[in-house]
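#lab-general

N.A. 3:47 PM
ok so I finally got the sequence cleaned up, no stray characters, all 127 residues accounted for. can someone with queue access submit it? mine expired

B.Y. 3:52 PM
send it over

N.A. 3:53 PM
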Amino acid sequence: MYTKKMEEDLDCGLLLAMKVLGGKWKCCILDAINRGVTRPSEIARYIPEASTRVIEIQLAELLFYGIVDKCAEEVYPKRTEYQLTDLGRTLLPILSQIDRWGLAHATVLKNVQSSNKLINPCLSSLR
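B.Y. 4:20 PM
back already:
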């Protein structure tokens, strides 16, 4: 059985926030749910770049941390929806700020990305 070699610092707010929000699509998933896109299949269409499996995993992590609730109706076919919890709604102003920051700096970031300056420093020694 795997055990972590180093204890995590659970007194660090940034580390805790990254455990909850870390993941390529979690912010987009939360945005989708906030906009009323609540079914996993709808979320997959809303974020076509993300695989269905990744969306399912990240929804499970958000559920684990109490950021979203899962509502499953006992009908056929089974209908599963997600909604933000009170704790999840406290993230909305933060996500809004991140969105504003991205839009404010979009030109610079797009230029950097298009000029191939985003080279993985770990791989640069292999060239």
